[in-house]
């Protein structure tokens, strides 16, 4: 097992990719705090864990500093340390996010608050604990929309571009403390986040066609990469983006 003895915080662990990563970490021996704004969803993740008592659900809105501080303190109260942070929680306001001139300011504010302020706050308040533990690993869940596939979703894509930059800046600033920070660039993945897009057959086919493999991702597809980046196996990797997008990056 590759994460034995480690304590991980996974944000947005009540659904989709975050839930899959939380459960995958437990299978590798980690103890996990499943943080989510939706407590019932985080509790369901704990229920699905293969090892009882290894997932603690905590309600936290990552865009609120007081929630994030409470999340870190609660984790250390229970398990004494933080070794891994997965900044996964995000929203995409499909149907309201839009090209720039049509974008409602409130949609911009809400999206940036969760998707960029959230990872900033979680990183900021986890760092002292990661440093105290002698180092650690931060894994950010990025998106091709943060590079060149962002058209039509100004707020979401900009938030993900910011997260990619945050990944590199944190990697540079904290390497001397043995804190590594990397990003997984997830391709279109079948989760509740994009359910409304996938209901339209034409959009589904277009998203499937983005990948030369001809299919959408599953949340479980991202777990081995997350385990690798969280573990010592990736000890020489920092500030890097790892693509798990079905090859869409080549198109
Ligand atoms: N699904 C995709 O196609 C896709 C593609 C690229 C990147 N991503 C990224 O993967 C990550 C996970 O997405 P997903 O598809 O699993 O989404 P999802 O909607 O299935 O899960 C997101 C979870 O985050 C939680 N959440 C939302 N706002 C929160 C907040 N303020 N504080 C705490 N928790 C909050 C939700 O309650 C939910 O449980 C996101 O960062 C997303 O941007 C997803």
From TrEMBL:
<dbReference type="InterPro" id="IPR020904">
    <property type="entry name" value="Sc_DH/Rdtase_CS"/>
</dbReference>
<dbReference type="InterPro" id="IPR036291">
    <property type="entry name" value="NAD(P)-bd_dom_sf"/>
</dbReference>
<keyword id="KW-0560">Oxidoreductase</keyword>
<comment type="similarity">
    <text>Belongs to the short-chain dehydrogenases/reductases (SDR) family.</text>
</comment>
<dbReference type="GO" id="GO:0004316">
    <property type="term" value="F:3-oxoacyl-[acyl-carrier-protein] reductase (NADPH) activity"/>
</dbReference>
<dbReference type="InterPro" id="IPR002347">
    <property type="entry name" value="SDR_fam"/>
</dbReference>
<protein>
    <submittedName>
        <fullName>3-oxoacyl-[acyl-carrier protein] reductase</fullName>
        <ecNumber>1.1.1.100</ecNumber>
    </submittedName>
</protein>
<dbReference type="Pfam" id="PF13561">
    <property type="entry name" value="adh_short_C2"/>
</dbReference>
